[in-house]
């Protein structure tokens, strides 16, 4: 479980579970908008140096939005 992570321009709580057929599912609750620096543009590809969710966790970055 990850709490209060910034991902995809939202602050979220996340948890991962496996479907009955073994497929991984991400379940999340959006808590609010994530703050970004003025003039910052959203890109299609996440910044690999930060990881998608900014947590630096390898598993999270691989499964993030």
What does this structure look like?
Helix content is 9%, strand content 38%. It has one helix spanning 58-63; strands at residues 2-7, 10-18, 24-33. It is mainly beta. Strand 2 (10-18) and strand 3 form a beta hairpin. Strands 1-2-3 form a 3-stranded antiparallel beta sheet, with no helix packed on it. The mean pLDDT is 74.
**Average pLDDT, to the nearest integer?**
74
For the terminal residues, how far apart are their CA atoms?
15 Å
**General form:** elongated
Q: In terms of structural class, how would the helical and strand content be classed?
A: mainly beta
Please give the order of strands in the largest beta sheet. 1-2-3
Number of helices: 1
- How is the main sheet built? 3 strands, antiparallel
- Percent helix among the residues? under 10%
Q: Estimate what percentage of residues fall within beta strands.
A: 35-45%
Order of helices and strands: EEEH
Q: What's the gyration radius in Å?
A: 13 Å
DSSP E strands, number? 3
Could you list the spans in which at least 5 consecutive residues all have pLDDT below 50? none
